[in-house]
Amino acid sequence: MDAIYKIEVENAENEYVTLAEEAVNQINGTIPSGAAVVNFLPFLCYLPSWLPGTGFQRAAAEGRKTVKAMSERPMEYVKRRIAEGIADPSESFTSMALENFQYEGAEDDIKWASATMYAAGADTTISALKTFILAMTLFPDVQKKAQAEIDSVVGNGRLPTFEDMEALPYIGCVIKEVLRWRVVLPLGIGHSAHTSDYYAGYYIPKDTAVQANVWAITRNEKMYPDPERFWPERFEGGDKDIVDPHLYAFGFGRRICPGMHFAGATIYITIVSLLAIFDISKDVDEQGREITPDGSDDGCFINHVNPFRCRIRPRSPQTVELLKKGQEELR
């Protein structure tokens, strides 16, 4: 919200965030192949919405209304700031685009580009970060090793920055393992065969809907031994037989995610900051016994680990002060 619209979010009840979440949930329910029978029987869209089997029409009407509001209300906020003279053109993607593009229809393009950036990035990035927190809860040795690397490079007098990225190779391995261990899109985004072809003995006619089984790639034991283990070390050493998850976690070919670099930057700076400031560990019950998360996920189109309990505590009083200082610098 800040990068796209310069909307400061103080809490989860922010009106723009809740509206966007509602829209994203409705969008996600329509994306998978087979989500609606009308995808295979297009004539159904011409039937009255009160007939049995045409509930997709009501869902589409409600979704259109929500997505329209999600795209227009933040745009109106940016335009108000510009009209009042309080917006710096470089303060957000939307204000910068409005400043630099004046062609006919530009405002509509900018509105939808901005909304797409949020819708495409919010739910997916959160999925990866929840996976990271689960991994740190279940694999404390990985967390300690990652924190030791940060401490040796960054020290204890400042927070990590993007300039530290190249000097933190183990953090890079942790991020790769996050993308592999609980891949965000287990079946990717649907593609269509533009010509007829054969693959592994199967005939694939032109225009066939094709889903890449990304989950199966991440569980390939020849490439990733012991695939259920969160083990960043598998990416150390530059083994050419091990595929970097960045090559499939963000899609393939011409439909690869155009926001992958923005997402990668968000994931890096969040993970490295959490590790620098906090210790993540298992929670305990009323008798003081550790609660081990089962590590399950919801198996949805955008895969999320199921809710789990953990403890997130500051590593020291000094890290609390660094956090406060960092917050002040952002204001």
From TrEMBL:
Gene3D superfamilies in alphabetical order: Cytochrome P450
Protein's pathway: Secondary metabolite biosynthesis
Residues spanning the membrane: 260-280
CDD domains referenced in this protein's UniProt entry, alphabetically: CYP64-like
Cofactor: heme
GO molecular function, one term: monooxygenase activity
InterPro entries attached to this UniProt entry: Cyt_P450, Cyt_P450_CS, Cyt_P450_E_grp-I, Cyt_P450_sf, Cytochrome_P450_fung
Domain of life (superkingdom): Eukaryota
Keywords: Heme, Iron, Membrane, Metal-binding, Monooxygenase, Oxidoreductase, Transmembrane, Transmembrane helix
Chain residues that bind heme: C257
Family, similarity comment: Belongs to the cytochrome P450 family.
Record-given protein name: Cytochrome P450
The species this protein was found in: Botryobasidium botryosum (strain FD-172 SS1)
